[in-house]
Amino acid sequence: MTPSVHADEYVRPPQRPLALMAHDKPASHPQQVHISAVGAHHIRITWITDDRSAPSVVDYGTSPGQYDASETGYQATYQFLSYTSGAIHHVTIGPLEPSTTYYYRCGSAGDEFSFRAPPATLPIDFVVIGDVGQTEWAASTLSQIGAADHDMMLLPGDLSYADRQQVLWDSWGRLVQPLASARPWMVTEGNHEKETLRELGTVRRFVAYNARWRMPHEESGSRSNLYYSFDASGGAVHVVMLGSYADLEEGWSEQHAWLRRDLAAVDRRRTPWLLVLMHVPWYNTNRAHQGEAEAMRRDMESLLYEARVDVVFACHTHAYERFARVYDKKANSQGPMYITIGDAGNNKAEKFMSGHELAHLSLFREPSFGYGRLRIIDNRRAVWTWHRNNDKDAQVSDEVWLESLATSP
């Protein structure tokens, strides 16, 4: 198929800086509320209070304002140069009934929130975004996502673009709270989460990320919050979140060994869908970030191919690109489909390379903002759509049907 570079049909106005999202409520009131899935029947709720003595407790129930259950967790703070965070509270609640709406209140103060627990069976709707940031374009992408229902958010890195300015983590947490408090957000780190800190002869990285966005890595046997896996829809979907920068802390060998064990434990008769997400794309025809993940690709690609991974999502390159099924830089009907989705709104990487060695495998590429949606319908079929952000609305501009490699003849 001839590769196609799609021109942006919308003349986008110049970017204006997004005003910081201020917190104008009492110090004991929760802010930056977000949730993540922990196992099949539990949800971790995380929030921050300026009052470091506020309780780490969540009251919840299935009717507004009526809470028949309560759980207590823990809190922590972190320091980054002269910045000291508020109290970061983590509370895990459950067991929960699938596809059920729960109403909850954090710390016995402030607003009531609600979320819908993920479904226990197919179908399931994932929204996939990357490289979010705090521009007005990012805000409009998030607004468009909020206008359409989904079950879970997958975000493979570059969340806030705080880049060592810790107050920007707080602002970003308030920006995403309307979505992140209502559906589980499952994230992994990008390069903008590193925030390298050198003090007294020691080097620390991912300090804010690991403190604020705690993912269920222990449950999947991972020793690092930078990579983990989880099941969705009662085990019909297995999602692997890899760490493109985990080598900075733990070495390729440990993540490689963990990935080998994790994939070997997946029974494809029970789990027809296998998804992988990471920050840096292995396949990329944009001028931006060429070749940055080649070592990781050589180290891990055979594991994904042998496991018959269905789709691999990445971001880092601020554009959208969808490849054919690929293995070892060649078209292969048993390889994963590779999708780059780094276009949530931070900025655009506009230059694709028509003469790139992989250009003939790139089926759709466009330097526009937007988000993706993967709807897994049943054990065999799924549909992927990419929604271009036209500022005032979202337009489906790419669509492809997928067949599970585990059930395909």
Automatic annotation (TrEMBL):
<dbReference type="Pfam" id="PF00149">
    <property type="entry name" value="Metallophos"/>
</dbReference>
<comment type="similarity">
    <text>Belongs to the metallophosphoesterase superfamily. Purple acid phosphatase family.</text>
</comment>
<dbReference type="Pfam" id="PF16656">
    <property type="entry name" value="Pur_ac_phosph_N"/>
</dbReference>
<feature type="domain" description="Purple acid phosphatase N-terminal">
    <location>
        <begin position="30"/>
        <end position="116"/>
    </location>
</feature>
<feature type="domain" description="Calcineurin-like phosphoesterase">
    <location>
        <begin position="126"/>
        <end position="320"/>
    </location>
</feature>
<keyword id="KW-0732">Signal</keyword>
<protein>
    <recommendedName>
        <fullName>Purple acid phosphatase</fullName>
        <ecNumber>3.1.3.2</ecNumber>
    </recommendedName>
</protein>
<dbReference type="InterPro" id="IPR003961">
    <property type="entry name" value="FN3_dom"/>
</dbReference>
<dbReference type="InterPro" id="IPR025733">
    <property type="entry name" value="PAPs_C"/>
</dbReference>
<dbReference type="InterPro" id="IPR041792">
    <property type="entry name" value="MPP_PAP"/>
</dbReference>
<dbReference type="InterPro" id="IPR004843">
    <property type="entry name" value="Calcineurin-like_PHP"/>
</dbReference>
<keyword id="KW-0378">Hydrolase</keyword>
<dbReference type="InterPro" id="IPR015914">
    <property type="entry name" value="PAPs_N"/>
</dbReference>
<dbReference type="InterPro" id="IPR039331">
    <property type="entry name" value="PAPs-like"/>
</dbReference>
<dbReference type="Pfam" id="PF14008">
    <property type="entry name" value="Metallophos_C"/>
</dbReference>
<dbReference type="GO" id="GO:0046872">
    <property type="term" value="F:metal ion binding"/>
</dbReference>
<feature type="domain" description="Purple acid phosphatase C-terminal">
    <location>
        <begin position="335"/>
        <end position="399"/>
    </location>
</feature>
<dbReference type="InterPro" id="IPR008963">
    <property type="entry name" value="Purple_acid_Pase-like_N"/>
</dbReference>
<keyword id="KW-0325">Glycoprotein</keyword>
<dbReference type="GO" id="GO:0003993">
    <property type="term" value="F:acid phosphatase activity"/>
</dbReference>
<dbReference type="InterPro" id="IPR029052">
    <property type="entry name" value="Metallo-depent_PP-like"/>
</dbReference>
